[in-house]
Amino acid sequence: MKLFKWRILPEAELAKLQDISGRQDGSPTAGSIVGSPRFDSAELGSIARNVTQQRLALQAELHDLQLELEALRRDSTAARAESAASEAKRKEARIEHMQTDFIAAASHELKTPLAGIEALGDALQMALEDDNLEAANTFAGHIKAEVRRMRALTEELLDLSRFDENPDSDSVSNLRAAIENALIMPQKAAIARGLVLSAHIDDSLPRTLFAKISPTDLSIILDNLLDNALHYTKEGSIDLSLRQDSDKKIWLLEVRDTGVGIASHDQPHVFERFYRADRSRSRDQGGTGLGLSLVKKAALRWNGSVVLQSELGKGSSFTVELPVA
């Protein structure tokens, strides 16, 4: 970038300019004659030409500087555009990679029960040919279990695809009613396994409690958190509680269990699709590896969040924050 180049007037020209300036205000200078002309045309013309030349030179330098500044702006804009385009390409590649991984994982999860059903079908056929009704009934039960697992996985995949759509911003849900409905089926499973399943809602709260979330997404959160707790709790209790943080204007929906807990190195990953801290146990218990990722996505869709606290061997706690309606 250029710097201004100032021309220093010679002392003689500067003295002349000062002398003329003194004459212009009407005051006589040393050696002047009263009544004589106030200006020396030759001197004034010389100085005027010098001033004009300096002004033109300065204008030329200002013009050059302006051009340089515009060039810098264009270069900067082009650099930002190039950087943005490069970042967009990286994001697109990352999304494409994630989609490819997701499709591969989903295909694997679907192939597993299909292969199991095919093998169980062969075993069932052989059992029927041998008139072994007891074995046939056992294989039929396994087939039904695999079909249920496939149906659950298909429904969860459909939920994930639905999350790509923008939610209805006017949707609200009655938390108390949703909690009561969500406890019906898990309560039966808990009793059958000797577990205590309870719900606690702050007594100071009114009868109707509304949150900014669609009933479908709220059901996904409650069903998956309770199902996850049942899967990983062999003895003890599961507690669902609801309280309000009035300062932040949010609901705090917590599901706490006394189950196996989650190791610290697994905790950052439990909300990822198809991630399992213990793959063998999850598959045996029918888990798809999508439940907690659905919980997180459902909460984020409504400007909420989910926080995990867990200690291996001592249980886990999942707290979902949802905006008050």
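The above is record 1. Record 2 follows with the same two-line structure.
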Amino acid sequence: MAFCWGWYDGAPLALSRNAQDECQTRKTRTRGPIYALSMPESHAFALLHIVFSTKNRTAKLNTEVRPPLHAYLATVARNAGCECYRVGGVADHVHLAVRLSRTLTIADLVRELKASSSKWLKAQSATLAQFAWQRGYGAFSVGPTDLGVLQAYIDHQEQHHRTRSYQEEYLAFLKKYGVEYDERYVWD
């Protein structure tokens, strides 16, 4: 039995094929088009600015490891079904501009980014054998019209951090986005 959608006297109405035939027999009319019921597609655009640092904010990410690490993080995000617009950072932290997949949670994405890249980094050199990311992270929603600004911000991390530490930057993000926090629990 096929179900159809229509309008009757201004109210939505679900009609089976038999009910449609009955309406036609009784000369009852539905207003507007009748469409076959189907599950509509789901659509989402959740643009995130994700930030996390090395454990204890140690400067482990030198200029040689950063480009391949950033490429690796972008690949992990894309493999998780997300669109990764930009990855950047400095020696003690990374920033990502990511469009979150509608089927994935932020926590699952960040967990995958950190676990996968930590394992990858440890295999890159003996000096990174004990590498670890901080336990927490920041994820802030950004409007699609601000994507260019976010990308430029990520691209200019070296300049930003000549005058501002990661801690200062991160606390500024928490304040900007209105995130309540207790600084005793922000850092590990």
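Helices lie at 17-25, 66-79, 106-124, 147-155, 157-160, 166-176.
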